[in-house]
Amino acid sequence: MRKMRTQRAVAILASVLLVGGVAACGNSDTGGGSKDDGKITMGFSQVGAESGWRTANTTSIKESAAAAGIELKFDDAQQKQENQIKAIRNYIQQKVDVIAFSPVVESGWDTVLKEAKDAGIPVILTDRSVDSADKTLYKTFLGSDFVKEGRLAGEWLVEQKKTASGPVNIVELQGNTGAAPANDRKKGFGEAIAVNPNLKIIASQPGDFTRAGGKQVMEQFLKANPKIDVLFAHNDDMGLGALEAITAAGKVPGKDITIITVDAVKDGMQALADGKFNFIAECSPLLGPQLMDLAKKVKAGEEVPARIETEETTFTQEQAKEALPTRKY
Known about the structure:
- The protein is an alpha/beta fold.
- It has eleven helices and twelve strands.
- Strand 8 (230-233), helix 8 and strand 9 form a beta-alpha-beta unit.
């Protein structure tokens, strides 16, 4: 009897040890990769939601992060630099793997970028760059050549007005004051039209990249300048707002006033196809897939180019009609 009890106790003890061993192995297997399972967390600070372009850009980033298996912490800065700086500092505190952002303006980033660098968190600039002299504060810039966009717009106008015998009065709707696309598109356009002294910018004012801003400033331009031949808008949305002001003033957009814009979002392309715009230089917002690829590379410690530019084109009325049916944004 005593022997049977001893055998039963041994069997029970063996069972407990076996179950305990299995449980311990199970815990080890499920928890072994939880601290560093290879998943990347990205903190992204967006400029805002000021235009159709920006909305498409945000959608591209969110969808691409999900497809790439990257956890995205997203913040809308509502066009304020202080909001972006606060968001970046929050990402540093949260110890994200990568920080990416589209700067509201070019200047004033060195301090917070140094904080990210000191924390060992790589930074990727998207769409807009910064004017920092210390290029080690960020890993790379992904976006467009804004100077080239302005230049392409200006070169098209030079060709169109090459036979003009008198002054061609141009008004310019700029983007946000201090923003890279506003500064660079203005520069590129100005350099291009300088070859023809008849092409003169008679008024230039920020419309903040919004339709409302474009309409308001264009109304002011029309009141102050009885003869306007050309409008150069730094994005489609301002151009679309300007259409309302031009029509309300009794003028025919695309005929009485030649309209050149930048972006090539669907609404802008439709205006071009309808003959209300005359020319668009493209600026693609679909940066998401490239951004996620870069995030993986910088997290892995791989070398990446200091500047990566997106491939873009230009559109005339006929080209817009052809491209519209398959336009993604």
